[in-house]
Design goal:
The protein is of the alpha+beta class. It is about 30% helix and about 10% strand. The protein has two domains: about 140 residues, DD-peptidase/beta-lactamase superfamily (Beta-lactamase); about 120 residues, DD-peptidase/beta-lactamase superfamily (Beta-lactamase, 3-Layer(aba) Sandwich). The strands form five sheets. The protein has a two-stranded antiparallel sheet with strand order 1-2.
Length: about 325
């Protein structure tokens, strides 16, 4: 009998209630790890979930950006407060909206350059917004959406660089976009595509053979979305991850398995990926009170942000 049996039974009950067609989960406690699978790949499928079933891991891709950046910092390739325009000239001399809801041409110069720290803490000045502003409309979908943009990294950076920032660099947290920009920077620093950088620094050494930016769509669980009438198939995901993407997104583009992801998190916790000091920074609150104002509506007051690491607890 597993010491996690009560947890696994609760997941079986969830599946039996039709909350989801299937669930795969993993736990690590006191150095012991275990994975569990129950249910099917879809409500109308007889293919069962397995512990090695691959999923789109969405924003759980973001900590990979943090680990890659920390790994490169440990190798002396850049410093956390280095300006990014050395590698991303598209972001040199940014303009900032006179106010967050201003027209796109009502701008002032940024009072400081964008740094790697700003990208790691998602405070560079641009990101997901639910406000009906001209900037939110200009970046919606391709710059903030759950599916990687259908463009090359160079085209993406050109479009990002053509937009003003919503806030002065380093003053306010905004979700998602910074991690995708950081991914382009990491690839340029390495002189290689992101999938090669990830394989060299994370997945290869750890034997994570099921973590990548694409997979056979027939092997992936069906994605659903909630509606007033219950769950329905999220058709926008059909085929979106079935072939190598033009843009390899660390904001939300990785696919993986529970087993692989447990391996990644365990290696991070055990300081086998990056030095302990950098791991401590990555997994602790890095936001000021001013910056944290941007998390309202996205995170509860007990949560904050590390270095590209989501949902850090913070002291009250």
């Amino acid at each position: 009998m597993s010491k996690f049996d009560l947890v696994w039974r609760s997941l079986e009950e969830r599946v039996a209630s039709k909350w989801a067609p299937g669930i795969v989960a993993g736990l690590r406690h006191a150095g012991e790890t275990e994975s569990f699978a129950t249910g099917d790949l879809a409500f109308d499928s007889s293919e069962t979930m397995r512990t090695d079933t691959r999923f789109r891991i969405a924003s759980l891709s973001k900590p990979f950006a943090g680990v890659l950046a920390a790994s490169m910092m440990a190798d002396g390739l850049f410093g956390v407060d280095d300006p990014v325009d050395r590698w991303l000239p598209e972001l040199a001399n940014p303009q900032v909206l006179a106010s967050p809801d201003a027209p796109l041409d009502h701008t002032v110069p940024a009072d400081k350059p964008i740094t790697i720290r700003h990208l790691l803490t998602s405070t560079h000045g641009l990101g997901l917004s639910f406000a009906g502003t001209p900037l939110a409309a200009a970046i919606a979908g391709w710059g903030t959406g759950p599916i990687p943009p259908d463009m090359s990294p160079d085209e993406y950076l050109a479009r990002i660089g053509a937009l003003p920032l919503g806030y002065q660099p380093g003053t306010r947290w905004a979700y998602h976009t910074s991690c995708d920009i950081l991914g382009v920077l990491l690839a340029r620093v390495a002189g290689a595509p992101l999938h090669e950088v990830i394989r060299e620094r994370i997945t290869g050494p750890l034997g994570m053979n099921s973590t990548s930016f694409s997979a056979d769509s027939a092997m992936l669980p069906t994605a659903y979305q909630a509606t007033p009438d219950g769950l329905e198939v999220a058709k926008s995901y059909d085929g979106a991850f079935s072939s190598p993407p033009k843009f390899e997104s660390l904001g939300g583009g990785l696919l993986s398995t529970v087993t692989d992801h447990l391996t990644f998190l365990s290696a991070l916790a055990d300081d086998r990926l990056i030095p302990a000091e950098l791991r401590g920074q990555m997994t602790s609150d890095q936001l000021t009170a001013e910056q944290r104002a941007g998390t309202q509506g996205m995170m509860p007051p007990t949560r904050s942000w590390g270095l590209a690491d989501i949902g850090r607890h913070r002291d009250q």
